[in-house]
Amino acid sequence: MPKNNLDSTNDNQSFIDLHLHTTASDGTFSPNQVVKIALELKLKAIAITDHDTVGGIKEALEVAENEPIEVIPGIEFSTEINSVSIHIVGLFVDYHNKELLKLTHEIQNAREIRAKKIIEKINSLDIGPKIDFNDVKNIASGFIGRPHIAEVMIAKGIILTIDEAFEKYLNRGKPAYIPRYKLTPIEAVSFLNNIGAIPILAHPCHISEKIELERLIQELKEAGLVGLEIYYPAHSHEDIDKLQALAKKYDLLESGGSDCHGEINNGTMIGCVAIPYSVLTNIKKRLKQK
Ligand SMILES: [Zn+2]
Ligand SMILES: [Zn+2]
């Protein structure tokens, strides 16, 4: 059994973990395993928050049925602003919501769609033999990226090296450049609000220093941000103090979780941060006001 810091805490207290990944995204535990481990740890509530998908929620809810644990359907959107990555967790998402399913589908297909658009552009440039999407797909073992397109361009004799493909056609500002599809954090927060979910800024102390945290929080608050992920494995006491002050200043709720991705190197384990159930009680109160 993984080590956790709950062993030393008061049995009368109930603990929760509101940030967990499963095999539905990049975690190594199946939703079934996540629920079973959380039950062993006697956690009272967990949220399944896979990256850009709600694919693990149904299984987790089924396993948790008739068990003394609440499973909260969630998601973690990968967003970007000025090339800085920002994660937005959504709690209490309606995982059957059509708009949500459409969006997650779009995000997951974005790489393929992007590759197709790049190929279309290259073909329209009339610089040599036409490229076929399937040729690119066949050489990519999983994610499709621009280097795979460059390899096919080399095979077709259009260019000589991968660098040449990027420098002449694929880089930003070049004729076959297509930007990556990413939500902005404001879009993710507004989206979650519109579908009745609770948007939370994930691991705020992990965001690049290129972004001024307080200004980001102000902007996201205007877009409907409800909470900050204050309790997080990598957050120091100073981080927590700072975030609690910001939460108070901007009337935001506290949230937190382990961000466990399963048994991966240096990864954190389910329940490794002792988060009291009262954190969830406050979130539920806010949910009722929606
Ligand atoms: Zn994250
Ligand atoms: Zn995460």
Structure report:
The protein is of the alpha/beta class and 290 residues long. The longest helix has 27 residues, at 98-124. It contains ten helices and eight strands. An eight-stranded mixed beta sheet has the order 7-6-5-4-3-2-1-8. The protein has two domains: 15-97 and 195-288, TIM Barrel (Alpha-Beta Barrel), CATH 3.20.20.140; 109-170, DNA polymerase, domain 1 (Orthogonal Bundle), CATH 1.10.150. Bound molecules: zinc ion (2 copies). One zinc ion binds at residues 76, 87, 202-203. The site of one zinc ion has 4 residues, from loops.
Spans of at least 5 consecutive residues whose pLDDT stays below 50 are 1-11
Query: What is the count of helical runs?
Result: 10
Named at the architecture level, the CATH assignment of the largest domain is: Alpha-Beta Barrel
Amino- and carboxy-terminal Cα gap = 39 Å
Fraction of residues in helices? Answer: 40-55%
CATH topology of the largest domain: TIM Barrel
Number of domains: 2
Radius of gyration: 22 Å
Quick one: overall form? elongated
> What's the name of the CATH homologous superfamily of the largest domain?
Metal-dependent hydrolases
Task: Give the averaged pLDDT, no decimals.
Answer: 92
Task: Give the strand order, joined by hyphens, for the main sheet.
Answer: 7-6-5-4-3-2-1-8
Q: DSSP strand (E) fraction? A: 15-25%
Q: How many strands appear in the DSSP assignment?
A: 8
State the CATH class of the largest domain: Alpha Beta
**What structural category arises from helix and sheet content?**
alpha/beta
Instruction: Give the cofactors and ligands.
Output: zinc ion
Let me know the largest β-sheet. 8 strands, mixed
Topology order in helix (H) and strand (E) letters: EHEHEEHHHHHEHEHEEH
